[in-house]
Amino acid sequence: MRTSILGTLAIFALIAGVSTVVKANSTLDSARSELQLELGDLLFSDERYWDAIVAYDLAKVGARPVQLLRASTGLLRSLLKVAEFNRAYREALFLGDLDSSDPDLEALQADAFWASGLFEEAEVKYRDVLAVEPSNAAAHHGFGRSLAARSRLEEGLAEVITAIASGDQRPEFYHTLGSIYRRLRRYQESSDALEHYVELLPNVRQSKRTEWAHSEVLFLRSFGDLVPFEITTDANAIHTIPFQVVNEKVVVRGRVNGSELIDLVVDTGSEQMVLSQETADEVGVRPITSTISAGVGEVGIRGLDLGRVDSLEIGSLHVRNLPSLIKNPPLTGLPSRRVPDSISPIAFGLSTLIDYENHKILLGRYLPDSPADIELPMRIHRLALVRGVVNEEHPRSFVVDTGGEVISLSIGTAGVLGMVPSRHIPLRVYGTSGWDPDAFLLPGIQLAFNEITYDNFSVVVLNLHRPSALLGFHIGGIVGHTFLKNYRVALDLERSMLRLTRL
Q: What is the pTM of this model?
């Protein structure tokens, strides 16, 4: 990571100053805190966030109230930068106890709530900030992101544009802007926003974020005048498609680029269509650029090719110009000889009803209005998420994963519960990033999704830190086939609801 010579000298000088103060013991604790605060600020500006965390922690010792506020603020900002989302949440609560009157600090707290997967709490706080300070850019950005997650894309877009128009030029504002434009299928504007994002990043030459953004811009612009996810049949029709359950996954048959019929997993745990390298070669999907993805498994974050599928036919649903990930290089050592290909209806912008009893899936922009036994508010932030409560007092966001098999918790959630035993039952679990060697079975969990409750339940614990870091919020767990198979499942994008009807 780049460090300026002047910045380095300043940091060294401050370290020497801190050391002198400690050795001489000739100053008050507040003077030592002040030096640590200045050191933390320099380290933060130099993107040395882990070192900044240490400095801000030390600054808290013996700090005066105003210094404690500064240290907590710097610590929270640093924790968010390194994706330590659970600790960031605790620090946000601490910061709130120190000062709840500063709108900027309130917006920062809301950012921490969002990063913890507490989307409802974050949105309430963003609204509160805007009620006090209508011009607060951070709150407009956060509120816009919240609205977009509830599929209110145009309203969310307006809020983010308002944040940018304030003159506050934060990179994350343009990142969110690009994401919303992409969901709106406005690829040119999305690529323009991501170019602005790159321009505002502090370390433009070496940053992985920069590499990702450049690849994304290249891919988006490759569409030219093509209409992404163009439905060539009746755009408002509801398509009924038979499926089979294979290895506890919903599998439909479809044609890619006019191919022979192939199996496609319906996978809401993926952001977009995914093809194996073998299938991509067979159907003529060529890589345009590369990107990064993250999932369950020891590889964690992996590089993938990104290409474009010209046509997809699944029953009566015909779609053109679909972005597709290509698993290149393919992972080795997985239990199946051929890695399954998959589609994500959410990426298509289509609501999905899975009828496990009759083995039919309905896809359409608007689902039939039918009663449901249980309705869970759903957020779409790259993936579909619903809120669950663990052990009665720990709300967490769970990915609704039709391509997954079990109910799981993240290792981060298990840690917050204090339920990571020194000895545990190891499991052989694999995901999109290979085997997870640290997976284990955790008994004695209570899990509730409104009136759906599991008592004294055993869950699989997975390391979800890397996908959480990539997504920008803590994934509390995953609900897959074990959970979903007992219901008629509707992922209703129009109403932002997961609607469940008991079988």
A: 0.89
